[in-house]
Every structure is written in structure tokens, then in C-alpha cells.
Design brief:
Blueprint: E1 11-15, H1 33-38, E2 44-48, H2 50-53, E3 63-68, E4 71-76, H3 84-97, E5 103-106, E6 120-121, H4 135-143, E7 149-151, H5 158-180, H6 184-199, H7 203-213, H8 220-235, H9 241-252, H10 261-275, H11 282-294, H12 298-301
Parallel strand pairs: 1-2, 1-5, 3-6, 5-7
Antiparallel strand pairs: 3-4
Helix pairs in contact: 3-4, 6-7, 6-8, 7-8, 9-10, 10-11
Domain DUF1722: 195-310
Pfam families: 2-thiour_desulf, DUF1722
Protein name: DUF523 and DUF1722 domain-containing protein
């Protein structure tokens, strides 16, 4: 199975406060129920608190991003205790040490760890736009542009949560492929397993990735780099009900010669009901998996789309 990865082999970076470590400025934590009790059952976390790592105490005065002219620094609200360089240096250090990670969960709105929408202030203390990026988080993402990253707050959204986890497992699958030694055959096989996954996110990328692998003028290393960049970019686009329904209809075609008229109609009804928002994705998928047991199709059995991550996470029950 695509998701059959041992917990100890699937490492995820995470802000330490999100898994219960009391490292926040006030000595508290910010535990994420999903990260600890659900996702945490299937992955191994590598925790980081850049503020503590650079020597700030617990508890400590709060720090914020302050913009003067076009330069953003991180310091206390009164402008003292600048830690910008220290956070950047630590971020660069960790970014190079964490190439083995398959994902990262950052603490939202943090001046060090926020992925986006971090509050920025003027030197006088006035709130400016909330368009900053945590200094530490920026370094991690810049050094590892393909790494699936998300924030704890956004993971409360079922669509974003499912998308993040699916990207983590796809990226881990790719990392395992690279570690085994890339060949053109392995790359082509990998793509065949993700065809319907890509289709459910971005039909243009679905066509482009197929065209890329058909080229004979690219060295394998260049082709692989372009492929994984295109794949992760496509998967970052949220799948919609319309795209999922289109993908399900394509899969349905594999059973056209086997299903009885009433069975075919039942599957059509399930797909339409999902398209119209009446039932969750798990409903038509369950029926397809039932038919796949009755009428085995080796190509479909290997599709990541049908089982992108452990079923126990129940991520397709909510949308």
C-alpha cells in the first residue's frame, strides 16, 4: 500500500508547543488535538522551538516583528533585544539538518514560526498589515521548497488537513523512491500510481507530467527534479468536489463491462450525490473499493488516490 510507512520512518517537524511542550513566552503550551492524538499515532515528531533554542528564557518577554522602512526585525515591543540574526542563523542550520523530514507543522501567527499572516508592527507600536512570515519558518521553507508545510490553526479545516496529510505521504513515498535509486522505470511506475491523485487536483498538471515523462531529451536527474516539483505543486492545489467527481467517473469506467445496470446506476448516483454535496467522499470511494474486490484491477489497486494515507485518520469522512 502507498501509505504503509512505519511510524518511526515518517518524521515530521513541528513547533514544540503544539505537542505539549511548555516553551511559550508565558511558560504555557498550545497543544493540537489533531497533531497529538490523531496524526501523531502515525508519525514521529521532531520538535523545535527556535526562541528557546537561541537562548531566550521561559518565561520571557514577548517578541514581535517590527518594520522600519523596508526592513523587518524581531525584538521586544520596545525595540530592544533584537533576535533577528539569531533566529535566521538557527533556521538556516536546522533547514540543512532536516532534509529527511516529510512535512512540518508550524505554530500560527508566531513571529518566529508563523507560515503567513504574522502581525507586523511599526517602531511606534502600531499594528501594520498581518502579512509577515516567521523568521525561522521562512528559512525552513526556503531551503526545502517541496516540503509539505502547514500551520496548526489551518489544520482545523477538514480540506486543508486532508490535503496536508496526503502531501506528506506522497512526499515520503518520493523520498523512499529516491533513496532506493532512481531509474526511468521507477519514475514512470511512481507516476502511474499518482495519476488519479493528480487528476483530482489539477487536470493541466496531469497532462503536463505525462508529457514530461514522455520526453527523451532530458537526463533522468533533470526529469526527476521537474517531475517532483510539478507533482508537489499540483497537490498543493485543493481538490474540489467537481474534480473528485470527475476522477471518480474515470475510475468508474474500469468497471463498465462488469457492473449490472442497477450497480452502475448506484455508483453514478453516489458520485452525483457527492458532487452535489449530499454525501462525503468516503461514500463513493467505499463503493468503488467494494467493486474492486469483486472485479480486481491491478492498475486501480496500486492507485494512491484510493488509499493515500492510513484509513484510521478518517480524513475523507468530513467533506
Amino acid at each position: 500500500m502507498i501509505h504503509s510507512v512505519d511510524k518511526k520512518d515518517l518524521s515530521i517537524g513541528i513547533s514544540a508547543c503544539l505537542v505539549g511542550e511548555k516553551v511559550r513566552f508565558d511558560g504555557s503550551n498550545k497543544p493540537s488535538n489533531f497533531c497529538i492524538h490523531e496524526f501523531g499515532q502515525h508519525v514521529t515528531y521532531k520538535t523545535f522551538c527556535p526562541e528557546v533554542a537561541i537562548g531566550l528564557p521561559i518565561p520571557r518577554p514577548t517578541i514581535r516583528q517590527i518594520k522600519k522602512a523596508d526592513v523587518i526585525s524581531v525584538s521586544r515591543s520596545d525595540g530592544t533585544g533584537d533576535v533577528t540574526d539569531a533566529l535566521q542563523a538557527y533556521g538556516k542550520k536546522i533547514a540543512k539538518m532536516t532534509k529527511h523530514l516529510s512535512g512540518y507543522v508550524f505554530c500560527a501567527k508566531s513571529p518566529s514560526c508563523g507560515m503567513e499572516r504574522v502581525k507586523v508592527y511599526s517602531p511606534e507600536g502600531n499594528a501594520l498589515k498581518s502579512d509577515g512570515v516567521g523568521v525561522f519558518a521562512r528559512e525552513i521553507m526556503a531551503e526545502n521548497p517541496l516540503l509539505p508545510c502547514e500551520e496548526n490553526g489551518r489544520l482545523n479545516d477538514p480540506l486543508i488537513r486532508e490535503n496536508f496529510v496526503a502531501r506528506v505521504y506522497a512526499y515520503k513515498h518520493w523520498q523512499n523512491l529516491e533513496a532506493s535509486g532512481l531509474t526511468k522505470h521507477k519514475l514512470t511506475t511512481f507516476h502511474s500510481q499518482y495519476k488519479y491523485t493528480v487528476m483530482s487536483h489539477d487536470l493541466i498538471a496531469y497532462k503536463q507530467l505525462g508529457q514530461l515523462l514522455a520526453r527523451a531529451d532530458l537526463p533522468l536527474e533533470d526529469m526527476a527534479e521537474q517531475y517532483i516539483t510539478g507533482l508537489m505543486s499540483a497537490l498543493s492545489i485543493k481538490a474540489t468536489r467537481k474534480k473528485h467527481a470527475n476522477t471518480l467517473a474515470h475510475i468508474q469506467g474500469y468497471f463498465s463491462k462488469h457492473l449490472q445496470p442497477n450497480e452502475r446506476q448506484e455508483l453514478c448516483n453516489q458520485i452525483d450525490a457527492y458532487r452535489n454535496g449530499l454525501i462525503p467522499l468516503i461514500a463513493p470511494l467505499t463503493l468503488i473499493k467494494h467493486y474492486l474486490l469483486q472485479y480486481p484491477k491491478a492498475y486501480l489497486t496500486k492507485q494512491a488516490y484510493l488509499s493515500p494515507y492510513p484509513d484510521e485518520l478518517k480524513l475523507r469522512y468530513a467533506y
